[in-house]
């Protein structure tokens, strides 16, 4: 294994630098992987633009969290993994012992261990993640596809919390990568699915995976949904992360409907809801954040079975040296996610 590597490090808002740094060595319980592919995501784009994230740590910081690769070194006490194994890591792990974890509310664990450092040639996986959220992957599964496991796990949890049942109707607000995954998973659960997004290319992407009803949110959504479904949808999933979308989601569900607030709004923002409608029409509003280990395992099973539209979600491949370009393309809506190859001279 080399002694030095290339790694992207975030120094501030829009200040991402490719630097030569020492290859990490594994501590007790840790694993070091040779990164095959890392994926960009909307959270990365926000962190790049804002230069901060509560879990990121002090700047300059390693960057990126969706990754798959090959084990090259293991720390003391690691017995389930060995050099040469291909693996995929989720981006966090709960402690397993606090009150939240004992209740099974793993995403609310106050001691979540997060991983950053996917945009590099080698990455060190923290011991808590090695224990519960690092998984072998077969040679038949491309690394870029495997690296989808973390966002797919979040989407799986979203549709499970929504309790979508066969024959129900669901509306997804937002046609980005997460919105497309949520719509696809709602279809797998047997729902008739509508998706609303103002951008024609995103609606076309949703059409390609068989979404039943495509809508422009600037139109009269409630009337179009009632015309198509006979009533407003049973479930509305907000996947935009804007206050106005949260508020619209609550307005668009049928009486007795479930509203999943999946997209995270900026810290400190406030949303307003019609209290009479929430009360007298018995709406259920539920926030959903992050994933649990069992959803990571379920996501990996779907990916291995080829039941996820990987080629639609990953819009192309770029070398690590062009990582800022990937975020610029995402900002211009010229792609959903990009696979980053840290070894290409590209």
TrEMBL record:
Pfam families, sorted: ADH_N (PF08240), ADH_zinc_N (PF00107)
Matching SUPFAM superfamilies: GroES-like, NAD(P)-binding Rossmann-fold domains
Cofactor: Zn(2+)
Keyword annotations of the record: Metal-binding, Oxidoreductase, Zinc
GO function terms (MF aspect): oxidoreductase activity; zinc ion binding
Gene3D superfamilies, alphabetized: Medium-chain alcohol dehydrogenases, catalytic domain, NAD(P)-binding Rossmann-like Domain
Domain Enoyl reductase (ER) stretches: 12-340
PANTHER family xrefs: L-THREONINE 3-DEHYDROGENASE (PTHR43401)
Family to which the UniProt record says this protein belongs: Belongs to the zinc-containing alcohol dehydrogenase family.
The protein's name in its UniProt record: L-iditol 2-dehydrogenase
